[in-house]
Amino acid sequence: MAECLAVHALNTALIVAAAGRGLRLGGADLPALVAAALLHDVGMCALPRHAWMREGPLKASERAALLRHSQIAIEAFDGCLRWDTYLRLAVLQHHERIDGSASAPSR
Asked: What digits encode the pLDDT tens for the residues 57-69?
């Protein structure tokens, strides 16, 4: 269960680290980008495994739960993690599209 999320987080972190180096990010920007990649889907751990490992279409209730994973992460970490605004926004808004729309609520 958590293994595939961990592999996804590590793969995402490696990709964004390479992209960040290519963009010549400096200072705290590159570590913040990598941290966001590692944490972006951590809210999925609070959902039932069948909601995100299922083959085939999701039930409406499963889809609604799945779309809340970013908010779940924010709610879990806000009380115990001192993170900067950009890291918090990256986790919260990682499904946002370039036009500002999102597949999940991000505010």
From this structure: 878 888 888 888 8
